[in-house]
Amino acid sequence: MPFADADLIARVILNDDHNAFGELVRRYQSPMRAFLIRMTRGDSHLADDLAQETFLRAWKNLASFRGEARFATWLFGIAVNEYRATLRRRKELALEEVDELPADPEPSSDDGPASARLDVNEALTRLTAAERAAIVLCCQNGLSHDEAARALGSPLGTVKTNVRRGKEKLRRWLEKSTSMLA
Amino acid sequence: MNEHEPNDSLDALLRDQAAYIDDNGFTRRVLTALPRRRRSALRPAIVLGATALACALTVLGFPTGEVLAIARLDFSAITVSSVSAVAAALVAIGSIVWRAVAASDSPG
Fold first, then answer.
1. Which of B14, B23, B42 should one mutate to test binding to chain A, selecting the residue with the greatest count of A CBs within 10 A?
2. How far does the CA of residue A143 sit from the closest CA of chain B (Å)?
3. Is the ipTM of this complex over 0.90?
4. Do the domain assignments include residue A102?
5. Domains of chain A: total
6. Which residue in A134, A146, A142, A143 sits closest to A170, CA to CA?
7. CA-nearest residue of chain A to B30?
8. Which residues of chain A make contact with B20, given a CB cutoff of 8 A?
9. Do A41 and A71 share a domain, yes or no?
């Protein structure tokens, strides 16, 4: 029977148990790396670096995990902070600033065959970072809006809006690409 | 709880796209990179303080002459105060050992 997250976390905190932490990493590496690949628009090398930093930070700060949220939510929160810090280091736009961008990179019919082949993965890269994060956390990783808000450090209403707006855009783009294929 | 639309094909599509990523050595790389956990900065101070306190109690608890009485193993000379002194001495020795263990355990 597999250990619960709480048991593994206790073993790490009390005994510096590397095996227990390894089990936690194995358990969560896939959703963390997938989330960060989405956030970095497919840059798997950068995503893996960020995922590694996420787990190292989790190791250092595990004693501060109070169990008020699921461990996954806490980890996603660290991943979001690592992603934002990297963006700042690269002097790119942070998640909050992306929110303020008026430009909506909506595919147009002028895009030709490329947009006709638009699939969900491509469509996700066209969302703003805040919309993408909210969609990936809630719709692909099963976090509730509350949990996503906690992980993203955003108000609940903002997360709900980003999920709704993001899904509207995805639906519109996918319908357009489907109609162009027909 | 999230408000999912009934039979929302987009939700289903998004869930289907959430593929599992094979570990491919990722966990091993993370474990290799783990730093040694830093222990509380207070811990050495507490250990040193306890050692100093125990030493002070030991010195104060040994009236002149009782040290020699214990050294001769003349148990008839042992009094309540000398018993407390011996206890303090044991605490002091224990603290020194603990300090040594803590020092060897701390990250280098």
1. B14
2. 8
3. no
4. no
5. 2
6. A134
7. A52
8. 30
9. yes
